[in-house]
Protein: Multicopper oxidase
Organism: Phaeobacter piscinae
Amino acid sequence: MKMTRRSFCTGLSAASLMRPALAQGLPLLTAQETMVQLAPDSYPATPVWSYDGTIPGPALRLPQASRLERRLVNALEVPTTIHWHGIRIDNAMDGVAGLTQDAVPPGQSFDYAFDLPDAGTYWYHAHTKSMEQVARGLSGALIVEEVTPPDVDRDEVLMIDDWLIDPETGLFVDSFASPMARSHGGRIGNLVGVNGRYDYRLSARQHERLRLRLINSANAQIFGLRLEGLTGWTVALDGMPLAQPEAVTGTLVLAPAQRIDLIVDVTAEEGAAAGILFAAGDDSWQALAEITVTARAATKSRGAPAPLPPNPRMEINGVDAAPVLDMPLQGGAMRGLKNTLFNGQAMGWQELVQKGQFWALAGQAGLGEAPFTTLSRGETARIRMKNDTMFPHAMHLHGMHFRVRKEDGALGPLRDTVLVMPNETTEITFLADNPGKWLLHCHMLGHAASGMTNWIMVA
Ligand code: C2O
Ligand code: CU
């Protein structure tokens, strides 16, 4: 029998139901060093940190409302943890070293087990010294499948990443601590790739309908993306379905950690150019993922897709009456910081720079003892982020999805990561219904490591 992807996935989840009981141990996910050929073949391979020896780590696919169970085995020489990005998760499983758990020492393990309430495209990544650990390769896709999947011929995950490596040696460049990268736009790679390949390609037939799950797992790069030879609709952002699919016309913007689910029809004829292009630094458009169009499929194009089914319990009530909390985004090159709290002490720019802190959220660099705010469970929150820096920031809230509230009170789609441009003010609103300690930080990971990390308490 020829296995289609769909039956293969169903097979996997059936197998997961027959897993041995918890006492005998969970299925493993091993963080380990591995050699991987990231650059073209004529260049040396790269020593990476991987999950289970692959870049990206294995794509975990589970049905909605099931439970994810994995034992993280730390075979690295440094402590690590896993964060399950975008999942409305039990706080104890959120994987934030120093806030929700202790980092897992080398040679030890940690059991992650939690429910998956929402269908959608998520991802997992290291959350201990993440600027370095994610850049070295510790990330993978987490796909939660709808009970009734949309009518597509194939479902493909495209994890978009960039790597900063020396082509002569294959080694990662600059020790992951460069003050230059941290105080500016972050660590931007010199090689862009998909699913661990710089030359990722798919093949498809004309008129085939594909679901493409785009995930930006890069450290700091904001991707501008265009479709070629494809007619597409955005059906979900950051895992959460849009009420109505939106036709893709111009450039899609995918900030670090964000996801876009597309449904695309292959419109290019056999042999014609098709795929996804990205805006390269020199103003040119380059191939990110090429699609080789083979013969014509039997089916014709099907018109706009139906919306994906909404996830449960997503209402945010009483937004207009909720108080607004201000969290200005501060610091960075060409702005600097003054009188900023670090470890409970007010410091000036020079002192902060010596401590590797270039950024602040609401006057504080890095995690403090006290949360930015304590919300009572069920409360509606509003946080206004004014970007007083010269750089864009991809602000991510753990544990709950939010909506952007426009000045006229209109609410945008559900998201877990929002791009805030310089001089822009973005207000997010969410229902604080998930108890625990939740990070709110910039997902440009060099910024997060250098001050742009805070947390909120839901009690
Ligand atoms: Cu995807 Cu705190 O991160
Ligand atoms: Cu930032």
